[in-house]
Amino acid sequence: MTSECPFAHYGRSHFPLMMECANVVLPEPAPVYPEASFQKAVVAVIQDVLKGSGQNYFLLEGFGLDVVVFREASPSNLIRMFEVKADGGQRSGGVGFGNQRGQGSQVELLLCDNKSLLLFDGIIRWVYADSTKPSGSQRYAMFTCTKAKSSAMGGVARGKQNNLRTSALEDCLLDWQGLCGEIGRFLVTQGK
To answer: Among 2, 3, 57, 28, which residue's Cα sits nearest to residue 131?
Structure first.
């Protein structure tokens, strides 16, 4: 298991434009904390990308993870899921997931074995905002379940408050435009 950001080796200009709609950039949200504010901004980006694609889609919030998108894709349908995390500085060096008792869909997801996590890496992305950094800076990240699991403080376990080590996400940080691009590419491509 590597701690490298899954997108770090691509750089911002690596991906050819799959569709023009993948380049949607909305104004950077203010604020990005509490998490509901950041989730609202992420949903707005998702909706703009999908509306621009002209494809039929259905977006559902709170369906196991924070946001789920079902999209028509030939030859079958495509599902994309997002877990949204916003760091307000309330936990030094960490941002929580699951509840304080170590329960929740995020905990169960990251307790899966690494082989199962690879299946989820193709359809799920964690989207993170650090509200302690200034607007316009590299304070956002998008990463896989495998990265989330490797970033967990002291590992993932039931019965404890689980947290992502924010320092483990430093190599993934993007500005708002970069995050919008990553969300767009993830939505409009068939593969990982």
So the answer is: 28
Q: Tell me whether strands 124-130 and 77-87 are parallel, antiparallel or unpaired.
A: parallel
Amino acid at 4: E
Residue pair 87/76 in contact by the 8 Å Cβ criterion: no
Of 76, 22, 24, 191, the residue nearest 123 (C-alpha):
191
Q: Flag whether the pTM goes above 0.85.
A: no
Q: Where are the domains of the chain?
A: 30-188
pLDDT tens, position by position, 150-185: 999 999 999 999 999 999 999 999 999 999 999 999
Per-residue pLDDT tens over the stretch 50-106: 888 888 889 999 888 898 888 877 666 789 999 999 999 988 999 999 999 999 999
Asked if residue 10 lies in contact with residue 172, where contact means CB atoms within 8 angstroms, the answer is no
| Residue 85, C-beta contacts closer than 8 angstroms, at least 6 positions apart | 35, 95, 97, 126, 127, 128, 129, 164
Host H or E run for residue 77: strand 77-87
- Listed in sequence order, the residues at least 6 apart from 113 whose beta carbon sits closer than 8 Å to its beta carbon are none
| Burial letters 13-41, b for 16+ CB under 10 A, else e | eeeeeebebbebeeebbeebbebeebbeb
**What is the identity of the amino acid at 1?**
M
- Contact between 125 and 143 under an 8 Å Cβ cutoff? The reply is yes
**CA nearest neighbour of 169 among 185, 147, 184, 186:** 147
Two structure tokens written together for 74 = 């030939």
